């Protein structure tokens, strides 16, 4: 069984085969009081492979394969964590007399370095679009 992540929202913009959707935020997004979405950070870009007849402000359902999103999450979160661990253990190897605080400080430097490298790579090679418009509601 193929797992997918499904969202609903309103069509905000249509540019050829690419559709910008404003997610339908209900009570589930109460944690941040929709501050991120109000600032424009909550938009979803989706492809329209079925060539559905879409119009602005129409409610649609978009979905993405869960495996693809999981891969992006792993790259964004796990690689910096591995950077911290590498820096922490490398500090103990290179400086045997260093305390835990110094090793943790070097680990934090490696964490930010790994995050910066991922940022630069994603800036140059953005992740491919994974969301697709599946149906009109």
For this structure, what is the CATH class of the largest domain?
Mainly Beta
Write down how many β-strands occur, each being a DSSP E stretch of 2 or more residues: 5
Overall structural class, as computed from helix and strand content, comes to alpha+beta
Task: Give the CA-CA distance, first to last residue.
Answer: 24 Å
Describe this entry's structure for a reader.
- The chain is of the alpha+beta class and 137 residues long.
- It folds into two domains: 4-63 and 129-136, OB fold (Dihydrolipoamide Acetyltransferase, E2P) (Beta Barrel), CATH 2.40.50; 68-124, no CATH class.
- The protein contains three helices and five strands, in the order ββαββααβ.
- It has a five-stranded antiparallel beta sheet.
- Strand 1 and strand 2 (18-23) form a beta hairpin.
- It is elongated, with a radius of gyration of 20 Å.
Question: Can you summarize this structure?
Answer:
The chain is α+β, with helices and mostly antiparallel strands. Helices cover about 40% and strands about 25% of the residues.
